[in-house]
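To fix ideas, we reproduce below one chain and its tokenised fold.
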Amino acid sequence: MTHNTVAAYAAPAPKAPLERTEIPRRELGAHDILIDIKFAGICHSDIHTARAEWGEGGHFPIVPGHEIAGVVAEVGPGVTRYAPGDRVGVGCFVDSCRECDNCRAGLQQYCTGELGMVGTYNATGRDGQVTQGGYSTHIVVDENYALRVPDGIPLDAAAPLLCAGITLYSPLAHWQAGPGKKVAVVGLGGLGHMGVKLAHAMGAEVTVLSQSLRKKDDGLRLGADHYHATSDPAIFEELAGTFDLILNTVSADLDLDAYLGLLRTGGTLVQLGAPENPLSVSPFALIAARKSFAGSMIGGIRETQEMLDFCGEHGIASEIELIRADQINEAYERVLASDVRYRFVIDTATI
């Protein structure tokens, strides 16, 4: 890192291929840490943002990446949580207002303050500068928004835990997945495979609901007790009234009423994927058996650390395919074709 300028891969314009560039990183403030990024996961959100698929507001050029794992290189004079050499991670946000009810409750992802949740990339920080993410060699973050990565988790396989891992852990913890609970995970991709591992480790009975049986062997290996193809309409009759909790990880337009029919009385269907079109739910699919349709987004700092510690205790990490930085554009196309098992991770030494 020279003169606060670091190498990175950025999308120069909407839908343009990512290319190597250099970006500035801020000087270390009193409570900042400089992280030598070792690995950065590729999340579907990165692709949506780089291709301006979530509407206007892209601050191009954009350096994506919010699944960051690395090592502390330097610390500011007021830092107490970390020291050089510590293994750390950064997830989907790098700041929040710190004062609203949600921030005070450790739910920074739902910050309602004026600053709001400051995304790790394509957001405006409290210094007025646009944030740039983890497809780079270094990043500077406030120590209060970094996470400690347990020694037992390899850094490359830890990176996707900072988004995919917490996105599944948070609803599983909130709706108390555990022994005696039946949990279904819709989709066995980058998110879904983490849901299977985590729900299994929590002691729940886990079912994967996927379009086909193509990944059945993987699903069972990862901890699923059952695996069904939703392309068979009979499955919705066979499994009616079965589950306490269903986690929908896919970003496609599904027949939500059909999935609500799989819930027990009082059960909850949680939406995690973000499809482009509005979702439709019949009121009677909810009213008839006191069912709930809910949403969940990542997790706060405290819960994300709890997730990492849980993964460390249970030997859980993401299933990854390690790539070079010059393979990012190819990896994006493969993500869109569902041709990855189950998360691409960039070796940032190749930037």
